[in-house]
Amino acid sequence: MVETAAVVAVIMGLVEVLKRGLKMDAEKAPLVAVVLGVLLALYFDGMTSESVFMGIVNGLTASGLWSLGGKSVVKAVLK
Known about the structure:
By secondary structure, this protein is mostly helical. Helices cover 72% and strands 0% of the residues. It contains 4 helices and no strands. The mean pLDDT is 84.
């Protein structure tokens, strides 16, 4: 299992590259962070429900939404 702090840092870096390099809309950043978190967790830990959950938590943590309850992620999905 890869360290959570390292995964969160990688997600944060990738999202910043997408925002600055590819001019991704900042409102989509939380959703992209969650997707990247899940993909990285599945890659490193295999296809388990725990991996999916940890990927979601890592993505929300990287985007700063874990403490806010994920409200912006729901808003971005419904938009």
